[in-house]
Amino acid sequence: xxxxxxxxxxxxxxxxxxxxxxxxxxxxxxASQTAASAAALGTPTVAEQARDLEQKARDDVARALQQxxxxxxxxxx
Length: 77
Prior knowledge:
- The protein is mostly helical.
- 90% of the residues lie in helices and 0% in strands.
């Protein structure tokens, strides 16, 4: 489980790093125009994608913990 958490953390970190380096390369006006057009099209921004990925990781970990608890409870019967 720790390995899975580490992998998810590294993926999130690499996406956030790529997002921040991409924003530094652009001017402020271009970045705001890109974000506005992405919002108008309904496509998620990189930050939203990162938040979604983190939430999915949390949900997956919670589900795995619950499955383990259920398995232990079934084994105790």
